[in-house]
Design a protein that fits this description.
Length: 438
């Protein structure tokens, strides 16, 4: 870094006025001809901020003071909002959050993919903006003041203490309080960096405690006399071995009509917002418009979140998932729900289309990739077209990158539906329907 850049990093800028909100959730202001990105701000805020990153065309800064608040700004519900890395938008009303999510989603797809704005539908709100999160990774730190649990401050490994998080399920706030009391002031507290918590549709809870100490057996004894109605595991050692203290660690969610019960195990994926996941599954089924004659390929299928509800209405479904834990649960879920017209394969999504389309035709491709998107599969779709695609995405930027390849390669975007899976944050889920129309 040049000496001039070093001087400018850490610089306190004169008062700036926030002009708009950008992807990533930060506010945008201007200083000396360059844009400045300032998290936790609202349009109309007059702020003082400190430069944290100095680039040629832009600056990144952290909020120091709100000199004059925007008319739409509200007081966050959480006392550490703006400090911890969990939420970015508690200073917006929920209606304002939805407005910005839909606007940014629409702008991203129309600008990058050059598609008709009318193809992008109004966002589906969450049924509850608070206490919706059914899975969470809690960061931990032992201090002179006691055992601290919370979340990392953005771009750091400093744990911000959170006694009660307003976006995680109430049952998990209660469990976290219980675990903190058990661990606090013990010799084991300094060896715990993370606790993974989850709760299912039956209010069954699980906890995985990441423990780096050598005496995991005696640590487990801490919980033997506690009457916690929770599945508890310790993850320890260089190989991250799971040690069961009590319970089997298997949780269950319910989706679709008729009701499909889906079990998932520790290490497997499930959506964190159970109510919105039901809305998402319903949306995918509506987009599919199945007649009972279709053969479907479901990539990144997890424990069968889409595969099994789709199989109830289709001729045949093939699910592909790289996670062994998840694919084993998918097979078990198929058996438990007595759904026989489905096969699950434990392999990478990359290359799967070409392999399976040689064996049988694919009438519908469903994919729900991670945040990094599915670039390799998009390129396969250009070589091996599929008539109908439903692309479920948790990141508008990688979605736009992938859709651009398809709409420039013979596919037509029929619709793209944003859905709010993560209230109080800038993140946006969506489901897009495409048809091959060369």
């Amino acid at each position: 870094m040049s000496e001039q850049k070093q001087r400018k990093t850490g610089q306190i800028l004169p008062p700036l006025t926030v002009e708009t909100i950008v992807n990533g959730g930060a506010g945008l202001a201007r200083h000396d001809g360059r844009v400045v990105f300032i998290p936790h701000t609202a349009v109309g805020d007059v702020v003082r901020c400190q430069v944290t990153k100095n680039k040629k065309n832009f600056l990144e800064a952290e909020l120091c003071e709100i000199i004059k608040p925007a008319p739409l700004r509200q007081s966050p519900q959480c006392p550490v909002a703006g400090e911890c890395g969990g939420c970015q938008w508690q200073h917006f009303s929920y209606l304002e959050q939805l407005r910005w999510k839909e606007s940014l989603f629409r702008e991203t797809l129309t600008r990058q993919c050059r598609i008709d704005s009318n193809k992008i539908l109004p966002i589906i709100p969450a049924s509850d903006e608070w206490n919706y999160r059914s899975r969470v990774q809690i960061k931990c730190c032992n201090t002179n003041a006691g055992f601290v649990t919370g979340f990392y401050r953005p771009k750091s490994h400093l744990v911000v203490s959170v006694e009660q998080c307003p976006i995680i399920a109430s049952e998990l706030n209660i469990l976290l309080h219980q675990l903190r009391n058990i661990i606090n002031r013990t010799v084991y507290a300094s060896h715990i960096e993370q606790i993974d918590l989850a709760v299912d549709d039956n209010n069954k809870r699980s906890a995985v405690i990441h423990y780096s100490g050598h005496d995991s057996v005696s640590f487990a004894d801490l919980f033997s006399t506690e009457k916690l109605t929770t599945d508890i595991f310790i993850k320890s050692g260089s190989k991250h071995k799971l040690i069961s203290i009590q319970g089997n660690g298997v949780l269950e969610i319910k989706v679709g009509q008729p009701l499909t019960k889906l079990r998932y195990a520790i290490g497997g994926f499930s959506q964190i917002n159970l109510e919105q996941n039901r809305a998402l599954v319903k949306l995918v089924l509506n987009l599919a418009k199945l007649t009972g004659h279709e053969q479907i390929l479901d990539l990144y299928c997890g424990m069968g979140n889409f595969s099994l509800p789709l199989a109830r209405q289709a001729k045949y479904v093939v699910g592909v998932e790289e996670s062994t834990v998840s694919i084993n649960m998918a097979r078990e879920n198929g058996r438990q729900n007595e759904i026989s017209n489905v096969e699950f394969y434990n392999q990478s999504a990359e290359g799967a289309l070409g392999r399976f389309i040689q064996q049988k035709s694919v009438d519908l491709l469903v994919l729900d990739p991670p945040r990094s998107g599915a670039d390799a599969t998009m390129r396969e779709l250009l070589e091996t077209p599929v008539n109908k695609i439903i692309y479920v995405s948790c990141d508008p930027q990688t979605l736009a990158r992938d859709l651009k390849l398809l709409v420039n390669g013979g596919y037509k975007l029929v619709s793209s539906q944003p859905i709010d899976m993560f209230p109080q944050t800038h993140h946006c889920e969506s489901a897009s329907l495409l048809q091959y129309s060369p």
